Amino acid sequence: MASFEEAGTEETVTCLHLTFYHPCQDEKMMFRCLNFCKREQVRADETAKFGRDSSVCRYNLMDTRVSRIQFSLEFFRKLHTSEYCFEIKNLSKKTKLTVNQTELGYLNKIGLPWKCIICFGDYQILAEIQEGESMDYFETHLHLAEAPILQERCLPSLQPIPENGISPSFFPSQGKSPTEIDENEL
């Protein structure tokens, strides 16, 4: 039995945490083929593909509106560094993919930020990278979100809304100072 001092150094593994959301996930069960809450090892030289074709994709989404191969994630090491990263590539000819606010058309690819939101159709995926040192493989850890990951992008109105619910921004401005409107005049 080897002592603690003689034991090899434990190598940490890069882990990609992916949290999935779709507004109809309870009714349509499109995530039923994904293995949630259990880490899964992926060899470093493999490309992790997501889509509905189970013969090609490692991660299957059971939805006819999803492309056979929707997108892929590839693990790589940055040149002249020891930093490991992921690259995301849109493989759908019909659906654009957004990573944060960057839109990717067919065959476009970019480096995956350490934390970002991937969207296509009604799908929202929060991707978070946990750094590691292993060169041979990485892990994925899939999660299911109960609520939307991405909230509406419009900023809340900074103007007070009157009790009648009609915002004053719908009325043409008559001057720079606020004007009072009787609710009977509406």
Automatic annotation (TrEMBL):
Keywords: Cytoplasm, Immunity, Innate immunity. Residues 49-121 form the FHA domain. One of its GO terms (cellular component) is cytoplasm. Residues 166-186 are annotated as: Disordered. Signal peptide: none annotated. InterPro entries: FHA_dom, SMAD_FHA_dom_sf, TIFA. The keyword S-adenosyl-L-methionine does not apply. Belongs to the TIFA family. This is TRAF-interacting protein with FHA domain-containing protein A. The lineage of its organism: Eukaryota, Metazoa, Chordata, Craniata, Vertebrata.
